[in-house]
Amino acid sequence: MGVVADAEHATITGRRGASGSPDVRFLIDEECTLAADASTLKIVGGTPLRGEVTVRGAKNLVPKAMVAALLGSTPSRLRNVPDVLDVDVVSSLLELHRVSIDRTDGEVTMDPGSVTSAEPSRLNVLAGSSRIPILMCGPLLHRLGKAFIPDLGGCRIGDRPIDFHLDALRQMGATVDKEPEGLYLSAPEGGLRGTKIELNFPSVGATEQVLLSAVLANGITELRNAAVEPEIMDLISVLQKMGALITVHSNRVLRIEGVDKLYGYDHTAIPDRLEAASWACAALATKGDITVLGAEQPSMLTFLNVFRKVGGQFEVNDGGDGKPRSIRFWHPGGALSAMALETDVAPGFQTDWQQPLVVALSQADGLSIVHETVYENRLGFTDALNKMGAHIQVYRECLGGSTCRFNQSGYLHSAVISGPAKLHGAELVIPDLRGGFSYLIAALAAEGESTVHGLELIYRGYEGFSAKLRGLGANFTAA
Ligand code: EPU
């Protein structure tokens, strides 16, 4: 499967963009078989999922590390690369800028030796497909002095503005012109300048933007209120391998000393802790037992605490016995416990863990509270769960203890989940990546048949999804 960068050679235009908008189309090459990646599944629930799945590199690191390759003067090699749509999109973006890409199973090499600007009309083929293009700003400004960024896509889980990104770039001296077709940026004479930047919220993307822009800037950049997600730390490792000078201070402060030149890297991406947690929740909700090969404990500490409090059991294999690292997650039988939790930036409970966990909480005994503090609009998926028999009420107020920035803003960002609820099959349309996974878990836990549409969004972030599901004994057919 691959997104064809060159519209003239595209053969199939059957897959919708990640935004879900019907007019945003991915161009898929002829090897893409819809049989392997069906858009609609009929699922018969009630079978506990049991077996093993493998997670590879983190979806929220790999595309960013690929963008970082643009900063090097020599080729880079990234390992543990999953075959997901976001990687296709970034490969296409880089190829359109004449980075030579060689992609084999699980590995990508990128040679940025002949980087040139790409035509906006050709880049716009990828408009609406992903949020990654915005991260090309810094590297392109360093390499070419200018950049064109098409409209972004990504899951519709809130407004998802890019004001922090653009403010930071402007502070570093860039000019930004917003046009209907996208953003045009230019570097100041002499290149981007280091400066002091403070984010209003520890945004993952804006932190990555500053890192990718500051490593080759003139002078020192101090970033306050930075995100410190494990994927950011892994991106810092990549940049350090390339020759960057980045110091991580306490209290979310990053200090980046600009250097004159960076080189290619050889790096193995950290495993996808978000996918690992999704399968853990699938084990819990279906009363199953799933071993996630490749999963690692350190980046999942907060999730594992919550999993244990709800009543799930897990066993970590840290690779000491020579076997691959893994975590086995299972439902031990008996009742699950309700709990109150709120999502947060790392090291807190990640917002991407929230949606799959809510399905498991619908099976817990009593009232659970979930307070979503990262995105204002990430509880819409609960409507469909209610249609399946769950009892979930959403509120505008901050419930569960603390007050977040969405208090009094009118957004339905707290949920009260009353369980255990008997779920039944329903017809569902996937709204976003993690919400979609939660629908699938619900369908697998429910009594009867469900029809789930819009699997394209799942393939954006879950590698080999149907095959993994099949391997776990799920009962489903492509419709
Ligand atoms: N925000 C702003 N202005 C900005 C940037 C962000 O107000 O300029 C706000 C957002 O609206 C949001 C909050 O800050 O309310 C956090 O957004 P952040 O920038 O951290 O998110 P992101 O970088 O766009 C990444 C992941 C998301 C993940 C979040 C939070 C990628 C490609 N996406 O998004 O992953 O939820 O960080 O950890 O890395 C997913 O995997 O399903 C997913 C959505």
Automatic annotation (TrEMBL):
It comes from the Bacteria. The active site is at C155 (proton donor). Pfam families: EPSP_synthase. One of its GO terms (biological process) is cell wall organization. The modification 2-(S-cysteinyl)pyruvic acid O-phosphothioketal is found at C155. It is found in: Cytoplasm. Its main location: cytoplasm. GO terms for cellular component: cytoplasm. Pathway: Cell wall biogenesis; peptidoglycan biosynthesis. It catalyses: phosphoenolpyruvate + UDP-N-acetyl-alpha-D-glucosamine = UDP-N-acetyl-3-O-(1-carboxyvinyl)-alpha-D-glucosamine + phosphate. Residues 45-469 form the Enolpyruvate transferase domain. Keywords: Cell cycle, Cell division, Cell shape, Cell wall biogenesis/degradation, Cytoplasm, Peptidoglycan synthesis, Pyruvate, Transferase. Transmembrane segments: none annotated. UDP-N-acetyl-alpha-D-glucosamine binds at R131, D352, V374. Belongs to the EPSP synthase family. MurA subfamily. Cell wall formation. Adds enolpyruvyl to UDP-N-acetylglucosamine. This is UDP-N-acetylglucosamine 1-carboxyvinyltransferase.
